[in-house]
Design brief:
The protein is mainly alpha-helical. The protein contains 20 helices and no strands. Helix 17 (about 445-465) runs antiparallel to helix 19.
Length: about 525
């Protein structure tokens, strides 16, 4: 029950953040469209965001949380706090130095990561300046990752999950209230990103102090605990970076086709909603949960948590994937088609959404499986899976992009390559878990997974049959299109719920704790 509450807490705040993110991207799409400023903004923001996800939330979190949880369980809060203070000192010094070096070298870095901008010096200069302004975001988000790891290990999930909401609140307010007055949308947006990072850090610092973990700033030193963290982070850098590197490679190649980088960005934002709501939420809860249960209750309890997380994640992921595939173009039309974003861009974005959605179950399952390795301080196995994934993605991205670019579909090949790479990552992790006996799915749970797939298929068939009847609405005005999409989403969800109950994909008793939690309970 506590495990389910925690996942719903993280997922709920993630849902709020992603919905605000859609509002943000709708406003950005209407303001920037898919032109050169939009491409420059995407590349400039993605660079510090990539390092944030890899260094701050990726390799750091996967190494820090199991160690911190172990200190809590075996040595107590005082020792865990001292360990966190040592980590804070080294993290702050390292990220400060890295950020300063990256900002200074940006004029030489940008032509490498955005080769398509070289022939447009003005666009290249703007992207370089925007990236330099946005880069302090990495510093603040690295500190946010540390504080989030502490709070999650204490099973205080709400504040860390709520912090990302601030970024989207800041950007929406700026897009609505500031940009109409100031102009210069690209520069205003990146300054806002840096300010939002500082706000997130201040929020979590306050919550951490109230939780009794006010961290003092020490002089950086390589204590045994910090050395162990760094050792675990080295392979964790690659394993945590797999999906982000795959996406970034796609962005880099996409700059060779005008408008492709922004099309992929808008499509990425759509499939990131279920990925964040389900996969990342389950992963955030599973990592400290498995780490603490390994220390206190043993392997059987840890395996039970993994199976519970997998079943919960796939129950929500399969209908999300089917819905995104069937409704890809209506989703793109409703969310983005206005202002500078026309019907042709909406159709292209819909194709990319569908390509990403094909891999959504793989993306989510990878997020579920990785904590089983990280909690055991095994960073090597996810590293092997990541290397296979990155190799496949880079190879297929080059092949697919240049094969389809003449037809104007190079961006679609990049999305397909990312999906295939995720399947490869999942295949490697699944085989290693099964070989070690860490993936123990009982026969009744395996049957339930198949029943979930059948219920999702019924929902997809219902959406396909309903879509032609709602085409007149989808061809109408903005509010009529939104109403049609809302009707299909709610109708599809209802069909899936009824089908899953009919097929036995979700036991009726599983609904009670979910419904009992929703009104005003804390994780």
């Amino acid at each position: 029950m506590r495990f389910l509450k925690a996942m719903v807490t993280v997922g709920g705040w993630t849902l709020i953040s992603r919905l605000l993110g859609f509002v943000r991207d709708i406003l950005i799409a209407g303001t920037l469209g898919t032109g050169p400023i939009a491409d420059a903004w995407v590349v400039a923001f993605r660079l510090p965001n990539l390092f944030r996800r890899v260094l701050g939330e990726g390799a750091f979190n996967t190494a820090f949380v199991p160690l911190f949880a172990g200190w809590l369980e075996q040595e107590g809060p005082a020792a865990a706090k001292a360990f966190a203070e040592d980590v804070l000192a080294v993290l702050l010094a390292t990220v400060l130095a890295f950020s300063a070096a990256a900002m200074a070298a940006m004029p030489w870095i940008m032509p490498v990561i955005a080769p398509g901008f070289i022939n447009d010096p003005e666009q290249l200069a703007k992207a370089t300046q925007m990236a330099q302004i946005a880069f302090p975001y990495l510093l603040f988000m690295s500190l946010v990752a540390l504080l989030s790891g502490i709070l999650n290990s204490l099973r205080r999930f709400a504040a860390a999950a709520a912090a990302p909401v601030l970024l989207n609140v800041f950007l929406v307010l700026v897009l609505v209230a500031v940009l109409p007055i100031t102009g210069q949308p690209g520069y205003v947006l990146v300054w806002t990103v840096a300010a939002a990072g500082a706000a997130q850090f201040l929020l979590l610092m306050i919550v951490t102090v109230r939780a009794g973990f006010a961290l003092r700033l020490r002089w950086p030193r390589l204590t045994p605990g910090v050395k162990r963290l760094l050792i675990l982070m080295v392979p964790g850098l690659a394993s945590a970076a797999a999906l982000q590197i795959n996406l970034f490679v796609g962005t880099m190649i996409a700059t060779l086709q005008p408008g492709a980088a922004s099309l992929l960005y808008y499509a990425d934002r759509v499939y990131q909603l279920p990925l964040g709501l389900i996969g990342i939420a389950v992963s955030v809860v599973l990592l400290p949960e498995i780490a603490r249960r390994l220390k206190s209750d043993g392997e059987a309890a840890a395996a039970s948590s993994l199976t519970q997380g997998l079943e919960f994640a796939l129950y929500l992921t399969m209908p999300a994937a089917v819905g995104l595939i069937v409704l890809a173009e209506p989703i793109a039309t409703v969310l983005y088609q206005r202002g500078a974003f026309g019907p042709v861009a909406a159709e292209a974005t819909g194709l990319a959404i569908a390509a990403y959605a094909l891999g959504l179950p793989a993306y989510v399952t990878v997020k579920v499986y990785q904590p089983a390795f990280f909690a055991r301080e095994d960073m090597i196995t996810p590293l092997h899976a990541a290397l296979w994934s990155v190799g496949v993605n880079i190879s297929l991205s080059v092949i697919f992009f240049f094969s389809l670019r003449a037809e104007g579909l190079g961006y679609l090949g990049l999305a397909a390559a990312t999906t295939i790479a995720a399947l490869v990552n999942l295949g490697v992790l699944s085989s290693r878990l099964a070989k070690r006996g860490l993936l123990r799915i009982a026969a009744d749970k395996r049957q339930r997974l198949w029943r979930q797939a059948a219920a999702a298929a019924v929902m997809g068939l219902g959406l396909i049959l309903a879509l032609p009847h709602l085409q007149p609405w989808l061809a109408g005005g903005e509010w009529l299109r939104a109403a049609a999409l809302a009707l299909m989403v709610s109708g599809g969800a209802s069909v899936y719920l009824l089908s899953s109950l009919l097929f036995g994909a979700l036991p009726r008793e599983a609904l009670r704790p979910l419904l009992a939690w929703l009104p005003g309970h804390s994780a």
